[in-house]
Amino acid sequence: MMAMLDTPAFVVTTQVDGHPSGCLVAFATQTSVQPPSFMVGLPLGDPIHEVASKSDNLAVHVLPRSQHALAELFGREPDEQADPFARCAWRGGPLGMPILDDAAAWFVGRTLSRSEVADHVAYLVEPVAVWAPQSSEELLYLSDLDGVDPGQEAPPRLYSGDRSEATRKYGMRFTLDVP
């Protein structure tokens, strides 16, 4: 069932001592409305883990569908990856966090807690600065990134995806029509 779930593609960035770091994340979700909070899972094996463990803040970016290349840039294995910040447009944002210019929306959050969960560290963050435009672009979803592993080895697939012509690594997108 987990392979059937689909979420927007998030890129998390942070920095310490002027050295930015970032990665595509497979695990992210809103955890509370009031007070607002959000959880992201950063892979233990990715360089962002070391940088984020020394930073008090994270920037979480959601990508538009047109930014498949940006997701691939931040979704490469750490040992294959040259500095992604040298290959994309970004700027220093609130609290000194690296902000990706081509994101559909972003927020900077203060880290409230860190908890090791299997091969990831779950960061609970409280948004303190947000940018989201009035018009919404269609977002990039993990299912759109079949060739990209967000910082970890993919688990064995339990669902064959036989209901569609192309098997998608991250499952299918579900939408609910609310009257």
UniProtKB/TrEMBL annotation:
Any one GO molecular-function label of the UniProt entry: FMN binding
Coiled coil: none
Highest taxon listed in the record's lineage: Bacteria
Keywords: Oxidoreductase
Pfam families in alphabetical order: Flavin_Reduct
InterPro entries assigned: Flavin_Rdtase-like_dom, NADH-dep_flavin_reductase, Split_barrel_FMN-bd
UniProt key word Oxidoreductase: yes
Keyword Oxidoreductase in record: yes
Location of the Flavin reductase like domain: 2-148
Name of the protein described by the UniProt record: Oxidoreductase
